[in-house]
Design goal:
It is a single chain. The protein has 373 residues and is α/β, with parallel strands linked by helices. The chain folds into two domains: 94 residues, no CATH class; 270 residues, no CATH class. 34% of the residues lie in helices and 20% in strands. It contains 13 helices and 15 strands. Strands 7-6-15-13-14-12-10-11 form an eight-stranded mixed sheet, with helices on one face. The chain has a three-stranded antiparallel sheet with strand order 3-4-5. A two-stranded antiparallel ribbon has the order 1-2. Helix 11 links the parallel strand 13 and strand 14. The termini are far apart. The mean pLDDT is 87.
């Protein structure tokens, strides 16, 4: 009887392995994961040099991991088991209170290089009123929602260290975000970005620091465009039990824009690409995701003042407030823009103001801010 039982189990496992292998071989490879918002590893080309250097082995491992059949389902099952075992974080994401997923903050390693690079840049364009806005992420503002007994690294020590050593204007947004978080949701619960409300109150601080009369929140038409936003942290944690976020857009009552995506050779009259609402990556509706260079012209303004914004994706939901005060807003993402930004500023002589805007995770995790020159 025992032998029969073992044979049945062995047969079931054999069938499973055979079916799984056949499925893996014949299924079409996925190029892009909507859930994770990234391109997946495709079958790498074999060469002897890549094998010897170890590159081929790394890529083939990534290929099997990315193209694994029912990958999202298995990852979700693993997360469920991790939660049952009492894990507080999954893949660098804390499972926090009130449906929040909060990204971990790791010890920074590039702060001195960032300070040196930004100070050199400011000296190169010393004729521009340059501002630096470093935005704390949700872990700094929503630390009260973290699981009990979690030891986490504060971002404020590092942020203050950078600000103390920068030789141009710095803008603090921590205090306003902390205060307004009692009244509005400053950060998405399932994504690493701030909300439009967070961006609005940061815009207020930029305006105050530059003697600009900011628009009241009542000067905007505020519209909820979706209530089914499951962002990057939802995908990273594979915790599908959380309630989806809403996205709001702010539109000033008087607006007449031309938005030029220079490298895409596309012009439009809106700051929002609404087609992203039908996709997983809904935050990309702000400025049509990330581009090397975007120029927004406000046709309603008489002024000739122009500003350059050097940024990560946090700025995408910030720019819709800034465009109400400048004839042109030049938006550069150094991750994709390959030329000297200082030369671009020199060639566009009406640029008298500048803003470098990054969140506290991005400044150390990608090369963008170190590419500013």
């Amino acid at each position: 009887m025992k032998n029969l039982h073992n044979k049945i189990i062995a047969l079931i496992l054999s069938i499973f392995v055979i079916v799984f292998t056949i499925t893996f071989i014949f299924k079409k490879n996925n190029e892009f994961s909507e859930n994770e918002n990234r391109y997946l590893q495709e079958l790498p080309e074999f060469t002897f040099s890549s094998l010897i250097e170890g590159v081929y082995i790394e890529k083939i491992e990534d290929y099997f991991a990315d193209q694994f059949p029912l990958r999202d389902t298995f990852m979700s099952i693993k997360t469920s088991f991790d939660k049952l075992l009492g894990k507080d974080d999954i893949n660098g994401v804390y499972l926090a209170k009130d449906d929040y997923l909060i990204e971990k903050y790791n010890e920074p390693i590039n702060s001195k290089k960032i300070i040196e690079n930004l100070n050199d840049f400011s000296e190169t364009i010393n004729y521009v009123n340059l501002n630096l806005m470093l935005v704390p992420t949700s872990i700094s503002i929503n630390s009260d929602k973290l699981p009990k007994n979690v030891e986490y690294k504060t971002q404020m020590d590092e942020l203050n260290y950078i600000y103390d050593n920068i030789n141009f204007n710095t803008i603090d947004v921590y205090n306003i975000l902390l205060k307004q978080n009692n009244y509005y949701q400053m950060y998405y619960k399932l994504d690493h970005h701030w909300t439009s409300y967070g961006a609005y109150y940061a815009y207020q601080e930029f305006a105050k620091a530059n003697n600009i009369k900011y628009l009241s929140i009542n000067d905007f038409d505020i519209k909820e465009v979706t209530n089914s936003f499951n962002g990057t942290l939802y995908s990273k944690s594979n915790d599908y039990s959380r309630k989806s976020d809403s996205i709001h857009i702010f539109t000033p009552k008087d607006n007449n824009y031309e938005v030029e995506y220079v490298y895409k050779k596309k012009k439009t009259d809106t700051l929002y690409e609404m087609s992203y609402l039908d996709k997983k990556d809904k935050y990309s509706l702000f400025l049509d995701n990330n581009h090397p260079l975007i120029i927004v012209t406000n046709k309603s303004l008489k002024t000739n003042e122009e500003i350059i914004v050097i940024k990560d994706s946090y700025a995408n939901s910030f720019v819709p407030f800034l465009v109400n005060h400048f004839k042109k807003v030049h938006i550069i993402d150094p991750r994709f823009y390959q030329n000297d930004i200082s030369e671009y500023i020199k060639d566009n002589k009406n640029i008298k103001d500048g803003l470098i805007l990054y969140n506290m995770n991005t400044i150390d995790q990608d090369v963008g801010i170190l590419a500013i020159r």
